[in-house]
Amino acid sequence: MDFKSTAIHDSEVYPGVKFTVRKFNVWQRLERDADIADQVLRVEQIAAEHRALAEDDEKRRVELNAEFMRINNGIIAPVVMKAGLVSIKDLLVDGEPVTDYDGLVKCGAVSSDFITELFIACQCAAGVYGDDRKNCASPGISTGRTDGADQNSTAGNASEKSTTESADAAGTSPGK
User: Fold this and answer.
1) 75 closest CA partner among 46, 96, 97, 99
2) Cβ contacts of residue 82 below 8 Å, gap of 6+?
3) Which of 43, 87, 106, 120 lies at a CB distance of 3.0 to 4.6 Å from 158, suitable for a disulfide?
């Protein structure tokens, strides 16, 4: 078996753009996450507190969401993306190629949907399995209700579309 250590994705946000993410084994993932373990634990505590809130405690709900976004976007996502994003192909900002994470940070002009797409792909390729895999794409806790939805619902799961030429196309790789 020829295991591919990376996966190439077609961007759904920017058609024609491709990006490559690194697949992690459990030890690489543990090493990557060692520096953010406290923040990941705090995010889990926030989620548990959010689920336990009374329906009318909107003030605390907003506070928790703000803390979640600060930790996730400011600490966790950059670590995940620096470790997982290998390259970006065919993305230009003001005529200049953006080819990696540092380029994304410098240009600052790509959509937040694209950043989310990259983060989800990096997280999912990092060796998240089983029941955790369906949650790897949940970027946050919903603050509002939608018709018929539970108050504590989360964002929907991401679909992972990969164009890798891996021999494990049948879904047998560790990231599938």
Assistant:
1) 46
2) 101
3) 120
Q: Is the pTM above the cut of 0.70? A: no
- Among the listed residues 117, 151, 174, 132, the one whose alpha carbon sits nearest the alpha carbon of residue 40: 132
23: its two tokens? 């697949």
What is the dihedral sign for C-alpha 163, 4, 77, 129?
positive
Closest CA to 20 of 35, 30, 28, 8: 8
User: What is the domain partition of the chain in residue ranges?
Assistant: 6-135
User: In angstroms, rounded to a whole number, what is the distance separating the alpha carbons of residues 127 and 65?
Assistant: 26
Query: In angstroms, what is the C-alpha Rg of the chain?
Result: 17
- Could you tell me which of 151, 154, 153 has the C-alpha nearest to residue 55? 151
Question: What are the strands, taking DSSP E only, across 11-147?
Answer: 18-22, 85-89, 92-93, 96-97
Segment 81-113, tens digit of pLDDT: 999 999 999 999 999 999 999 998 888 778 889
Give residue 63's region: left, alpha or beta (phi > 0; psi -120 to 50): alpha
Tell me which residue of 169, 32, 6 sits closest to 88, measured CA to CA.
6
Phi (first) and psi of residue 123, to 5 degrees:
-65, -45
